[in-house]
Each structure stands twice: as structure tokens, then as C-alpha cells.
């Protein structure tokens, strides 16, 4: 299991003893906005997307969680017994180890490799969030769309991505009409090929 590549054997045993390994289908919500975090997800296989939802219903993609990673926002909220500021949705069918938040707090004191895991995640997510801020503030929609399509291609290890214009629009926090218009321009520039509910990256 991937846990053995991340942690020392004694911590792996604690995780396996106290955690709950579950399978989730794509589209399932595993962390909701404003909910208390009782379990911290560590992805074993598959992937999760983490989004921020505003009161008007608009959403924006913050980052993806891939095998061997967790959600730093969930970890911090869980250990401090605070409500979640994000929503986590399974992007592709996933196997996830759910770790009780109270255990995660204890392990910070007892296991240096767990603390290192949290700090490394924090650094990586902070850099990714800076990219999101930079993208929203300074990049045009076409560059943001192309970057997102490339992210998904890397995530799924394929250049043919099954995704709708609405899904892309939701993840970028823009309208479907603007998304469709920009995608058509990108197709004219031979960057992508559009199919029904599918995009091929050239």
C-alpha cells in the first residue's frame, strides 16, 4: 500500500488500525462546505478535486489531491475542530483512507514523519493556491482553460478528456457561454479538438 512509502512502519500500523479504507465513486462529495471535519482523507488511488463555493453558487477549482496526498485544509480544520472552508469531490473513482481527526492531532506530537507530511502538503498547496490567484488576477480565460485541460490530461494520463463545457466553467468560476466561445477559438488555433462531452488536447 502507498502508506508504506509515506510513513514509518509503526505509524502505518496505527493508520491501518484506526483508519477506515473506503471506495468512492466519481462525483461523490467527501467534504462539504461548513461541515465539521471528523475524518481526514488520504488518497490511496484515484483523485479528488478541492473547490471553493461562494454564496451565489459560483465555484472555483483550488487543487487536485492525488495518490499519497491529503487535503491540508481538512487536516487543519479537523485538528482545530473547525468547519470546512472547502468542498472536496471525487474526480475519478478513488480508494481513500479516512483518518479520525483526533488521531491526526496526536500523531503530530508522536510521529515526525506525519508532521513532515503535513508541512510538505502545506507548502505544495500554498504554491498551488498562489498559481490560482495569479491565474484569476492576471491570465486571460483562454490560458486558464488550456492550463486546466492540461491538468486533467496529466491527471488522467490521456489527451482525450471526458468533460463538459459546464464542468470546465464551474471549475474556473466563469460562464458556460464564455467557456464554449473560448474553446471554439482554441479549436480554430489547433490547440484542441472538441467532441460531444470530450476534448482532445493536441
Q: What would CATH call the homologous superfamily of the largest domain?
A: Jelly Rolls
- By CATH, the topology of the largest domain is Jelly Rolls
Number of E-state strands: 8
The proportion of strand residues reads 25-35%
Rough outline: elongated
Radius of gyration over alpha carbons?
18 Å
Question: N-to-C terminal Cα separation, in Å?
Answer: 35 Å
CATH classification class of the largest domain: Mainly Beta
In terms of structural class, how would the helical and strand content be classed? alpha+beta
Q: Mean of residue pLDDT?
A: 85
Count of distinct structural domains: 2
Q: What's the helix count?
A: 8
Task: Give descriptors for this structure.
202 residues; alpha+beta; Jelly Rolls; Arc Repressor Mutant, subunit A; 2 domains; 5-stranded antiparallel β-sheet; 3-stranded antiparallel β-sheet; 8 helices; transcription; Env_Response_Regulators; DNA binding
Structure description:
- With 202 residues, the protein is α+β, with helices and mostly antiparallel strands.
- It folds into two domains: 3-137, Jelly Rolls (Sandwich); 139-201, Orthogonal Bundle (Arc Repressor Mutant, subunit A).
- Helix content is 48%, strand content 27%.
- It is built from eight helices and eight strands.
- It has helices at 3-6, 9-18, 72-80, 101-110, 112-138, 141-156, 165-172, 176-188, and strands spanning 20-24, 29-31, 39-53, 59-65, 87-100, 160-161, 192-195, 198-201.
- The strands form two sheets. Strands 1, 2, 3, 4 and 5 form a five-stranded antiparallel β-sheet that branches. A three-stranded antiparallel β-sheet has the order 6-8-7.
- Strand 3 and strand 4 form a beta hairpin.
- Helix 3 packs across helix 4 (101-110) and helix 6 packs across helix 8.
- The radius of gyration is 18 Å and the shape is elongated.
- The mean pLDDT is 85.
Amino acid at each position: 500500500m502507498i502508506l508504506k512509502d509515506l510513513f514509518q512502519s509503526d505509524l502505518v500500523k496505527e493508520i491501518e488500525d484506526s483508519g477506515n479504507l473506503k471506495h468512492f465513486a466519481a462525483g461523490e462529495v467527501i467534504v462539504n462546505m461548513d461541515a465539521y471535519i471528523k475524518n481526514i482523507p488520504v488518497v490511496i488511488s484515484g483523485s479528488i478535486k478541492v473547490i471553493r463555493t461562494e454564496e451565489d453558487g459560483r465555484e472555483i477549482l483550488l487543487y487536485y489531491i492525488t495518490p499519497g496526498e491529503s487535503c491540508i485544509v481538512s487536516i487543519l480544520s479537523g485538528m482545530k475542530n473547525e468547519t470546512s472552508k472547502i468542498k472536496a469531490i471525487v474526480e475519478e473513482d478513488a480508494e481513500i483512507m479516512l483518518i479520525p481527526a483526533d488521531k491526526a492531532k496526536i500523531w503530530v506530537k508522536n510521529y515526525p514523519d506525519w508532521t513532515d507530511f503535513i508541512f510538505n502538503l502545506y507548502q505544495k498547496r500554498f504554491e498551488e493556491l498562489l498559481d490560482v490567484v495569479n491565474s484569476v488576477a492576471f491570465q486571460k480565460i483562454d490560458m486558464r482553460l488550456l492550463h486546466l485541460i492540461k491538468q486533467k490530461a496529466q491527471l488522467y494520463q490521456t489527451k482525450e478528456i471526458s468533460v463538459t463545457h459546464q464542468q470546465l466553467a464551474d471549475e474556473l468560476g466563469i460562464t458556460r457561454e464564455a467557456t464554449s466561445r473560448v474553446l471554439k477559438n482554441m479549436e480554430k488555433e489547433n490547440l484542441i479538438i472538441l467532441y460531444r462531452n470530450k476534448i482532445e488536447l493536441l
